[in-house]
Write a structure and sequence with these properties.
about 130 residues, alpha/beta, six-stranded mixed sheet
Length: about 130
């Protein structure tokens, strides 16, 4: 039943990436809540029950990923943040806000990390 699925907030500045990650999230059995980041920052939806936040690290915005992560934590307390990036490791500036890191282009790893974080298995940083 759809209302029982956990919601995954996807934060990205690229509409194509939002579409791709929304598809992956839905195929993994979760409810995707895509959020586009505009130049001034993200327009977060009025959702109250977010189970996980997928955050693209490189945003074309006046707000940096750490600033967006901090705002997301305030609006959705308890929702772990999984950082997506084409970098090889977790960027240091966003690490204090993140529960994990996944390199873009690794869908199986992304799904595995999402499931682990949503089920409450704790931090999965790499």
């Amino acid at each position: 039943m759809e209302s029982d699925r956990r919601k995954v907030l996807i934060v990205d500045d690229d509409p194509h990436h939002l579409e791709i990650y929304s598809l992956l999230v839905e195929q993994a059995g979760f409810k995707a809540v895509p959020t586009i980041v505009k130049f001034a920052g993200p327009e977060f939806p009025p959702e109250t029950e977010i189970g996980l936040i997928l955050l693209d690290y490189r945003l074309n915005s006046v707000k940096t990923a750490p600033e967006v992560a901090q705002e997301a934590q305030r609006l959705f307390p308890g929702a772990p943040i999984l950082v997506l990036s084409d970098l090889w490791h977790m960027p240091e500036d966003v690490a204090p806000y993140a529960a994990g890191f996944v390199r873009k282009g690794e869908p199986q790893e992304l799904i595995s990390r999402m499931r682990g974080l949503i089920s409450g298995s704790g931090k999965t940083q790499s």
